[in-house]
Give the backbone structure.
Amino acid sequence: LVGSEMCIRDRPGGKSTLLLDELPADSFLLSNEVIKNRFQILKYNLIKWGCPAVAASQLDSTRLSPLTGFFDIVLVDAPCSGEGLFRKTPDAMNEWSPDNVQLCAARQKRILAEAMPLVKPGGYLIYCTCTYNKQENEENAAWISQTGDFEHFPLSIPTEWGILPRTMGYQFYPHRVRGEGFYLACFQRQSAPSTTDKRKKRRSPQGLVAVSKKERLTLSEWIDDPETYFFFKDKHEAIRALPATHSPTAEQLYQHWPYLFMGLEVGTIKGKDFVPAPSLALSTMVHPQLPRLALDLPQALAYLRKETMEGLGSIPRGWQLVTYEGLGLGWLKGLGNRYNNYYPKDWRIRMKSR
């Protein structure tokens, strides 16, 4: 499935990060999670993926209506009765009941009714659950094809994968695939959504202030190909990066929701100094000429725990990109006879390895 923009109602980051890997390089992903604690996990996982062409929102699906006909692909990962998780989490069976199945099916229809208008003509709607029953799966899929001018779009799935086709969609069973229970159906929109044109006067988007030329010059020492990015400051004065081709998309989103989690944080400027953000170290945006400090496995684990690293030797003064097997982990600042570990405390590994 190919698209330049995408909206996704997701678990906290699993499908979002998979899609960031699989979508074309010029894609933009908006990932929405309505529950606050799950939204924080979603943001954490998006940060760890290091991709700037992304935004995350914590909105009820009713609030997405300003984006009618905006997306090439909309994926609805709907709340469900969770039958597909019974093998992995037996306690989930205690929460199951016929009444809960009916409640979930009705809630899924509400969400789908709000999601379907967001798809542009010719675009795709993907509906999935982690359950088995027909009410939440095939019956809701049939309802999509009857209600929203969407036609079922068959997928080409090799039979050796063990995924079973249904009348509409596909069922994944844990005894047939390497995973838990899952259902998936894809639809294509046939015509434009019917809407009344109630355009409001366009205003300057809040929270999307471009950095100055002087600040861009500072960033050019840290960012590879900085001219390909749009840099702006968020409400905390942190500088964030977004592919320049997506700045019109950012402006449109910020018209409605000025406090979206948008792009990738690259750092802050404090006086004359630039302080790099942890997320920059995890991205592919880092300038190739920046000093790097390669660690072995014990040193890397100590760094990620914020413990003392043995055998480092002399560390030059200034910022160092800490790497393991060529991949960025975070930042360290050499101070002569010592160093400061800038790995975030909230991210540190607390478990002891065997």
